[in-house]
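Each field is set out underneath.
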Amino acid sequence: MCIILLCVLYYICVLYYICVLYYTCVLYYICVLYYIHVYYIILYYTCVLYYTCVLYYTCVLYYILYYIILYYTCVFLRRVNNEVCALVFSWCGWGINAFLFVHFYMAFLTPRWFYTRVLLGHALSWARAPAACLNFNCMLILLPVCRNLLSFLRGSIQPDRGSTAGPDITFHKLVAYMIAFHTAVHIVAHLFNFEYFMNAQLDRNETLLPFVLSEIGTNDNASYLNPIRTNETNNNPETLLGTIVMFTTVAGLTGVAITLALILIITSSTEVIRRSYFEVFWFTHHLFVIFFIGLVFHGFERIVRGQTLENLKVHDPENCSEHFEDWGRNGSDCPEPKFAGNPPMTWKWVVGPMFLYVCERLVRYYRSHQKVVITKVVMHPSRTLELQMKKKGFKMEVGQYVFIQCPSVSRLEWHPFTLTSAPEEDHFSAHIRIVGDWTEALYTACGGDQPEQQQAWTLPKIAIDGPFGTASEDAFQYEVVMLVGAGIGVTPFASLLKSVWYKRIQNHQDTFTKKIYFYWLCPETQAFEWFADLLQTLEKQMNEQNMSDFLSYNIYLTRWKDQEAAHFRVHHEAENDPITGLKQKTLYGKPNWDNEFTTIAASHPKTKVGVFLCGPPVLGKALAKQCRSHTEADVKFIFNKENF
């Protein structure tokens, strides 16, 4: 119903805009043909201004409607395939970018920009078209990172399920790729434009139209066309001219700042840096503040100019360009052309998302001051820290994650961690591997390097932002579930396995999920230690309840030494596995996914099987391929990928 009302409102605005445009044109022609009083001329321009405002807010409403419709579409499509959501966002984003590019490319081929094209050629359109796309993408880039806003919207749409997962990270990356691409095109085109501007001014030949156009407005006249003035070319060598223009104009300074900020943000967002040096990724990403400030002021100087609409009525560029030597002379039908730049538009595109992001940061600041109590600290083997915490009003779902800040370590850093507790427990917990400077400092602050147990009042203060949803929440929608975790990617499934067990045993709830296939791929034996206790507890309880068939788990050791392999062969006949202590033996190598999917498909005909992965992209591609190849009329495999 909300979408229908928004659609009706949007089309009413469009119809209203068309009516305003029609009657404005009628009023204009009446004024021209019958020389109506000046007050009617003022009324005409008032209508033009009114029409412009209506057009602007109609466009704003359109883009809001576009984002809401995409979100509602994905809420529906996620029940079919989580990958389809990303494809919908991707294709819609590409389509709108293509439309904007073509539309604005053609817009700068109109007569108003005739003389600008004399100087710049098609490089003008190649610069302005990606600029329009940049406005659109910069409007969208902040929306996916407004975590609390999206969580609130999703919770209000589906209050029974809480905060559900969406393709936020995928969408954010897609928009970032488009910004990088259009920025590159925009920069290259303006480099050509600068060369053309400079050549037109340096080639001082009064018989050439480009030079004549460049000489217009030499006496500080605001109607100039060429931003490189005569005194700059006369007083400075050609080699210094580029530096002067770059660092003495608003467009040049902001352009350099925007480009440097964007390069640093992109290069620090690579997988290697984000995984190994999260602090670099986190702090460098905050250069977006410089990026958006520079973006807002980039067009304020109006360097790229076209013929004014008033001058265009008395000066036809296609005819008058043939007689440019007679411009402004007595008896000439061609007065000197007047030029002006378009008013800056970028701020209109980004002011809304910037306001939403400021509200988002205020919410995070408020949450950072809410009290969080650390009820228990567990030091697991292999330097894994478990924090059990409580917070007033905190509600979570399986597989969700939170951002954790420790002010005594760093007041600026927030790090994401998957919750490993179940919603049915009286606390929430996170397992933190000690792999970097921040986690090492947190480990020390919690007394990880001390032999004795720390008192509660000596533990550091913790701030929590979240929880936020992930794809694993949807596991309860499927009767049969495949959970695939690679390495530390097993953490969201710890919460899910606990919750399923609580629902079936302790709370005596008849869950829709009847069978779980759990796969854990890990490179070394030490990584199993912290998770083994949970699996042993589940295994014991399932045997006591005669439900050993409910959970089928397979643990794969993908890397091992020869001595370890020999030791495991000796103990292969033991009742429990020598690594995990479980009855189910650890397997070596990698799963034969084709055999696994074939077996599951044969065991569960006429069933939708939910496949959930938390692991590397390579494994995700392999599982997605298996889902497509084994999906048939009577059994369907639905692939869900969590960004971890």
Summary: The longest strand covers residues 372-380. The domain at 370-449+457-468 is CATH 2.40.30.10 (Elongation Factor Tu (Ef-tu); domain 3). The first helix runs from residue 2 to 34.
